[in-house]
């Protein structure tokens, strides 16, 4: 207790020991604003603190912002303090000496949110040159978020001392942005703007469009402003704008007229006209004009009034920025940027289309094999995709490591759906060869049953199939072109399958026999090929690929019992459009449908339903002109 | 002359006579047992279910003609059914909303203008999709006559254009099936959009309230629709029996079995297919127009491709190539479906597992469909034939 | 005898293989013509071109007095113009009765509305009876065509061809699988038809061709190798080389 008292005494004597480089005197000069800061008046104080060049200023600002500054009631001095045993532990701002004191003697300073933000901005200038890289990075990020012309000086000053190359480049970038928007002379601004030309970063585009912000201006004379152009609006909108800005009388809506008429009904009559007869706009207008003539209501704005107003007033679009040279430079830069953005968007669209193409290819290729080789429509193909996806999900339940589980799931999904395909071929399809429509229906029965079975086992809600961490994120080329790693993986998978299937069909015994059975089953049989075995294996292969496609699709879409039906129609379209019995045909079909869908979505981005509708209509029309698909077999081999 | 013709026709085709007689008897029994005209043993909602089933029978026989007789496995006939429903639904909704709006606006001191009325109706109808103006396709919705014409014309024209395109380029077999499925899907997706002009996925509702008959009870209305459905089914059956019985039937069955050969005999196969496709589409539209006022609501999900496939399932289970087979299939499967999925079927307790019919009915239906295709390609109707032959 | 069908400079190829190569061919009305040639000579493709099943890459096919081109016409239009075809493999409508098969083929208006409003006439029934009599199927009329024997299906197919009453009959291997007596009868029917119409018979069986006693065209590798009487062509060294000599 005695020791505590002693410390307090020491602290009491502290002001006497004030040195020239101490912060406390400066704080005391601004005592009122520091103790009870307000957003509006704190600016000069912060400027004074930052301008003092004192090293303690940064720490003080941080503590002030963090509500760790306390004021001693008796003499108004400021200390840092934290709650400790038996009271507050005080730290002297300049000397760093500590002491414990009863909390009642101190008053905590709590700046409000606005002030804390202002302090933060002031701190940025310290942080920009902080020896700690993380702090500097944070400061730059904060600055980038809110480009403030006041910080241009601090930022420029910090560049020469910047040791980190990436951060230095970033700082220079921000200086360019700041100069472009707030530079002192038009020349420096134009120079900065010119360096932005062709830079497609979102930030750059924002800076340019901020320079080019416009407002509307209606005037009867030549406008005294940096004019971007005249604005031609539809008649009603143009007049509404004049009403708003030039205090012209507003045209009366039908509703207002009706209310005015209703308010003036006397004995079932308005202005001498029977109220019951006012069931047309023309009749109401006539009655209202009579009302207005008798002074009971304001006159209507006639069409000729509006025409005249529009003839005398011109509506301009003017730049907020007064300097035409600057806006012209910014406009040129923006045009250059837009051209480049358009090119990049096209490239991005192409990437999107490529990724959709690979998904459709994966989903359809199994179907193409079974349909092409055996002439069998497998309506349960979508459900095989679903089975593959659920296999992936179940494997993840047992193997928590996502990479390992994916490696296990792919072959397992193939095995499961291969077995399912073979079973279906043996039990159902082989009895129905040469009756393609009935195969379609029977496999549809299997599809209903499998879908409901999956619903019974896994429930109706979507199950996750999580991709391994290394597939998260996206490959970013620039602010416009990017593609997620999962999609790249699916693309690679599709390529692998293309190569593998080409290899199987062109280079292996199975492929040879399959082609033989496709082209002439009887001849093949007489040469010792067992068509039954070939058909079974082919069907298994097609189904197995569906399973793998299911795992791939499950990685980026939801795994539900109905996911198969989302892909089945598209898959059929792919096969039919591409041309039956040909892997290249399927690839062509998938490319066409994928590209088309992305293209239509790009034209009408808000409405994917419409995109799908138009795509299907296009396919229906396409089939009119190429009934055999893009890659059509010709002549007798086509089988007609 | 016509009477003599139909008389001989019926005598030459006893199955038609049997079907019409059973339909008449069934209608009589239901009427006697209904709440509106008789003892009330059959509830109004069940009368509606039966009336709807009759409409399903009508589209099923249309499907049977196009598939079982002409060999076109259309997976799109439910689209025409839906269009018929939408066409009549537009008038029902418009007329009813108009009555309500007129009621609301009658309180005004000044009578409403035409545009005020139409705006108020539009706001009422399209408020749910955030619109307040009538889309162009509602241009005729104020008139029952025109809208009834739409019931016939829209499915007919759609079928005509689609069929002309498809048959002209000789798209056949599974390709054609997939194409018709694509057509249905496109239509359903289009209707799902909010700006389709048909209230997006909200669909049209309140169709059970018939304008002009606000005072009539649902019991009476349901019986009236039941009769109308029965009459439509009877007329449709007669029409199709007549079409399929004579030389026309012979030609279209020949097309089903060997299209190319029929061509070499000098028949323009495309015209025949187009005729059958369009005629059945129109009948499907009529069936839909009778079905949805009994259902009370129509939305795009009704048109989804799966519905048309179920239609094929009914016909296959009932028996293809026989009109009464389609009726048997539609009645049997749709009533069983509503029994099992309605939750009134008792669960089966196996001790270790309880089989809930709501979960397992579709599995059973799917598998039995496979079984029918494999083992009884003739469907249920072929059993009747066997019985008849034994006797 | 006036020219009924004239093909000139017709070529068609499938995936690079020339099935028909600059083929020219003429037949008058009435006339009987036999076409022979080794397998793959293009006989079937030749018929496919006339009936509109296959479109040639180049050349002309002219039919009738008005010299209409068959190339722009569909199969059914060509058939209605008066070209009838009997396929090598009998293709009758097995799920329909023999009578219905005949009725389908009978020369009557072919448009859907004519067919829809078609009423059976005594004349039509008589014609069917007569045709059935001619091809020996009188007792089989109410039976399903699918229940007939292979030979009976051949006869039904021939009967259907006659029922169409075409001006040009294309007959693909009519004698295949027939007994000698049946062959004779077939010969008689074809010869009778050739009294009024043009008949083209594709046949492998030399005896049958000899019995037809008509001009013979030999096809090889898609073009005409030789033409003339059977004795004339069988003595042609080229023909012996490619066809008979092997």
Task: Write a structural description.
The complex is a heterotrimer of chains A (about 650), B (about 400) and C (about 250). Mean pLDDT of chain A is about 80; it is low at about 10-20 and about 635-640. In chain A, strand 1 and strand 2 form a beta hairpin. With about 650 residues, chain A is of the alpha+beta class. Chain A folds into 4 domains: about 1-115, no CATH class; about 130-215, no CATH class; about 215-320, no CATH class; about 340-640, Orthogonal Bundle (ABC transporter involved in vitamin B12 uptake, BtuC), CATH 1.10.3470. Chain A has 26 helices and 12 strands. With about 400 residues, chain B is mostly helical. Chain B has one domain. Helix content of chain B is about 70%, strand content about 0%. Chain B has a two-stranded antiparallel ribbon. Chain B has a two-stranded antiparallel ribbon with strand order 3-4. In chain B, a hairpin with a 4-residue loop joins strand 3 (about 350) and strand 4 (about 355). In chain B, helix 2 (about 15-35) runs antiparallel to helix 8 and helix 4 runs antiparallel to helix 6 (about 145-170). Chain B starts with a helix and ends with a helix. The model of chain B has no long low-confidence stretch (mean pLDDT about 90). By secondary structure, chain C is an alpha/beta fold. Chain C has one domain: P-loop containing nucleotide triphosphate hydrolases (Rossmann fold). In chain C, about 35% of the residues lie in helices and about 25% in strands. Chain C is built from 10 helices and 10 strands. In chain C, a hairpin with a 2-residue loop joins strand 1 (about 1-15) and strand 2. In chain C, helix 3 (about 100-105) runs parallel beside helix 6 and helix 5 (about 120-135) crosses helix 6 (about 150-165). The longest helix of chain C has 14 residues, at about 150-165. At the A-B interface, helix 13, helix 19, helix 24 and helix 26 of A face helix 5, helix 6, helix 7, helix 12 and helix 14 of B. Chain C: Its EC number is 3.6.3.-. Chain C: This is Methionine import ATP-binding protein MetN. Chain C: One of its GO terms (molecular function) is ATP hydrolysis activity. Chain C: Keywords: ATP-binding, Hydrolase, Nucleotide-binding, Transport.
